[in-house]
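Q: How do we represent a protein-ligand complex in a form that can be generated token by token?
A: Start from the inputs.
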Amino acid sequence: MARTVLVTGGLGFIGSHIVDACVARGDRVFSVDDLSTGKREHANPDAPNFEVDIRNTEALEGVFRKTLPEVIFHCAARARIQPSFADPDLYFSVNVLGTRNILELAKRYGVRRIVYSGSSTAYGDRDTLPLREDMALSPQALSPYASSKRMGEMLMKDRGILTDGPETVCIRYFNVHGPRQTTIADGAYATVIGIFLDQLKNSEPLTIVPDGHRRRDFTWIGDAVAGNLLAAESSKVGSGEIINLGTGRNYSIWEVACHVCGLPNTTPPDELLKTGKCIWAPPRRGEAKATLADISRARELLGWAPRMRLEDGIAELKKGI
Ligand SMILES: NC(=O)c1ccc[n+]([C@@H]2O[C@H](COP(=O)([O-])OP(=O)(O)OC[C@H]3O[C@@H](n4cnc5c(N)ncnc54)[C@H](O)[C@@H]3O)[C@@H](O)[C@H]2O)c1
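Then emit the structure tokens for the protein with nicotinamide-adenine-dinucleotide bound:
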């Protein structure tokens, strides 16, 4: 059954793939993206984009009036940890107040469901793994970005229920990777696999942040999109449920570097450095020691399972360089 769908952040990495998937299944699809980090080349010709800032309530209402969406995939956000330290107010205004605007207008225009793009950064730094959605939030967020994404989730749950608003469901992504991910050209917005692949392409050493032993659960973009589509339809959700989308396996940044360089992932860090294929990068703050998703809730409530392993995803991406 075709639906009318609005994807916020529809010219960004994850949003543009959701747009493509919805267009491919025959939905009427619109995007709202102010191009602050999104890219025109990600636009799908069958999904008009409204170049509107989600903080601009009046312009955003115009989008709702013209499109009358049934489902919203809310991906628009300032979406990276490091730049949030320099401008926490920007992160608060886009990720929290912008999300409030989406909720308010969704209620006014009778949207059935919002699927919120949340983040595994909401967990903070935990000693207990895997990360389960029913864990209490850590007392302190690690960055203004993480803080804003936690607040967005709370709004989705509380406002949705307390004000008889739309149904809501909150996805917590774990390091999504795939085509259109950010690259070195995106500066502080670049993510680790995008940076490594660029460096490989340019025959430069891979820059590893000290303590490459940090571990991450990496999710393929196709799997993240599939989770969103299921979350929009599942009859088992709609009350602000938080759902991890990860793989249930994590990798150290060293191992990721080995996969990118085509070396055995058992290569000890010292040897990897000696090959000259990797060097140290400046340290960064605000990042957890390790992430690892418990994905039983996604299986149970969405009937979702990840299909792509990190090794295969990297191999797929290397074909393009
Ligand atoms: N990529 C990941 O691994 C990851 C992990 C956890 C959470 N997330 C979340 O997923 C969502 C999408 O992330 P992404 O990686 O695709 O990032 P992205 O930066 O590629 O996409 C975000 C999009 O939102 C748009 N945008 C930003 N501010 C806006 C505003 N004020 N008004 C309208 N549009 C605006 C940007 O132009 C961009 O196209 C974000 O909410 C992010 O917090 C992503």
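Residues 9, 11-15, 32-38, 53-55, 75-79, 94, 98, 117, 119, 149, 173, 175-176 surround nicotinamide-adenine-dinucleotide (CB under 6 Å). The chain has eleven helices and 13 strands.
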